[in-house]
Amino acid sequence: MFILELSFGEEPDRLAARPAHRERLQALHRDGKVVLAGPFPDDSGALLIFDVPDAAALAAIVAEDPYYRTPGVTITSQREWSPIIR
């Protein structure tokens, strides 16, 4: 599993790109690749948990979604995670 943490700026492009990004996340969730995803209550960023086999698989998901390259969206952390309770 991998954890992706995002930070958000004030750029309006981010909000315009968000609906398509959320649709992609829903599809990935149905495919079992997204476990959890959502913004922080203050909308300063978001946390996403992916169930993918390796960093290359996560990189492919990120590359396919233009949201991660939208002004106002920054990937601040990407870490592999080994949960002991699921």
Automatic annotation (TrEMBL):
SUPFAM superfamilies: Dimeric alpha+beta barrel (SSF54909)
Domain YCII-related: start-end pairs: 12-77
Database matches in Gene3D superfamilies: Dimeric alpha+beta barrel (3.30.70.1060)
Protein origin, superkingdom: Bacteria
InterPro entries xrefs: Dimeric_a/b-barrel (IPR011008), YCII (IPR005545)
Chain coiled-coil ranges: none
Family affiliation: Belongs to the YciI family.
Name this polypeptide is given: YciI family protein
The organism of origin for this protein: Micromonospora parva
